[in-house]
């Protein structure tokens, strides 16, 4: 840490000592009756010495710290160092000023008599300086720790977000590869089409990994690639409908946040009934919020598949990590319809993050 007394702090420090110098000289001149030259010299010699000593003492404070020696040892060591330093400095100043009292017994007597209070005042002033140094050092260390903690939390948040993102696709990729394997025997052309679309989807996903947020338009385009792959797998059984407000296209959403929702709709829609499943997507936006609704019909009388719910849990966790809110996902299960509604805040702070 660099010396804290720079700029305005140094100016304030010098002004404080200037006031002490003036007060010291006035006391000697008016209270003790010494002439102006001696009064000014005595004040300047002592106080300028302590002014410089106070500045240099910062480096002692840097060496003797509570972190390295403990609070009790630091107080004792600093107290001893201050008393020794002040006593030595007082001796040097008295030796210099004694030359003024060679032919003046009054000055010689005053110098001898004033040693105790000079040491006391010097210890008091230097002690205050040391205390201020430690307070400044503590404040600086606290700010540095807070900064490091914020950076660490940011790194942990990014790491957790990356982990959640990488958990999104494995199940889908596994199913797609199984479908491609089957189609190579029954319908090679569709297998080829599915490989092309799968590569386009994965290329788009990898290309967007660096950005946490992108436009709703880009998100829907990527989801269309995903749904085209699923339509090859399920054919006419997968029906897609949408009501997209084009004014919402430029709104920002987390990357691939919708993929688990569509995967969930297909899993619990198509797999649980023989009839077709209709997946409906609707968007609505205001100045500071984007609402996305994805719903699908399902057979309420069929036995539901047991799942771990990782996809929906990841969506909820990602939104909470990014926006700091836990109420952005609403799930509704009605008799023949299942819907998930996302609230995506559009505040400047969130977008900048």
From TrEMBL:
The protein's GO terms of the molecular function aspect are: phosphorelay sensor kinase activity
- Keyword annotations: Kinase, Membrane, Transferase, Transmembrane, Transmembrane helix
Mind telling me which PANTHER family this protein's record contains?
SENSOR HISTIDINE KINASE YPDA
Which InterPro entries does the UniProt record give?
Bact_2-comp_sensor_kinase (IPR050640), HATPase_C_sf (IPR036890), Sig_transdc_His_kin_internal (IPR010559)
GO cellular component terms attached to this protein's record: membrane
- Give the superkingdom in one word: Bacteria
Asked whether the keyword Transmembrane helix is assigned, the reply is yes
Give TM regions: 12-32, 44-61, 73-97, 117-136
What protein does this entry describe?
Histidine kinase
Q: Where in the numbering of this chain does the Signal transduction histidine kinase internal region domain appear?
A: 159-238
């Amino acid at each position: 840490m660099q010396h804290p007394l720079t700029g305005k702090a140094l100016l304030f420090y010098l002004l404080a000592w200037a006031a002490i110098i003036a007060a010291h000289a006035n006391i000697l001149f008016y209270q003790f009756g010494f002439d102006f030259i001696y009064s000014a010299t005595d004040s300047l010699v002592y106080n300028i010495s302590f002014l410089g000593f106070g500045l240099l003492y910062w480096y002692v404070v840097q060496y003797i710290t509570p972190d390295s020696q403990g609070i009790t040892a630091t107080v004792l060591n600093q107290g001893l160092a201050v008393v020794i330093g002040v006593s030595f400095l007082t001796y040097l100043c008295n030796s210099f000023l004694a030359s003024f009292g060679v032919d003046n017994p009054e000055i010689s007597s005053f110098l001898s008599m004033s040693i105790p209070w000079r040491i006391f005042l010097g210890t008091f002033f230097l002690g205050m300086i040391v205390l201020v140094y430690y307070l400044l050092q503590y404040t600086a260390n606290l700010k540095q720790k807070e900064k490091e903690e914020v950076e660490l939390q940011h790194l942990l948040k990014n790491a957790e977000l990356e982990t959640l993102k990488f958990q999104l696709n494995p199940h889908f990729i596994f199913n797609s590869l199984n479908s491609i394997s089957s189609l190579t025997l029954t319908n090679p052309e569709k297998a080829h089409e599915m490989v092309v679309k799968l590569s386009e989807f994965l290329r788009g996903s990898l290309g967007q990994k660096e950005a946490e947020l992108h436009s709703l338009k880009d998100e829907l385009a990527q989801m269309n690639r995903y749904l085209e792959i699923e339509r090859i797998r399920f054919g006419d059984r997968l029906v897609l409908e949408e009501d997209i407000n084009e004014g919402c296209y430029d709104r920002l959403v987390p990357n691939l946040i919708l993929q688990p929702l569509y995967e969930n709709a297909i899993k619990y829609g198509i797999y649980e009934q023989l009839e077709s499943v209709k997946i409906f997507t609707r968007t609505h936006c205001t100045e500071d919020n984007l609402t996305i609704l994805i719903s699908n019909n399902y057979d309420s009388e069929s036995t539901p598949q047991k799942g771990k719910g990782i996809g929906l849990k990841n969506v909820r966790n990602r939104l909470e990590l990014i926006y700091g809110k836990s109420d952005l996902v609403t799930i509704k299960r009605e008799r023949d319809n299942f819907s998930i509604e996302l609230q995506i805040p559009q505040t400047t702070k969130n977008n900048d993050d």
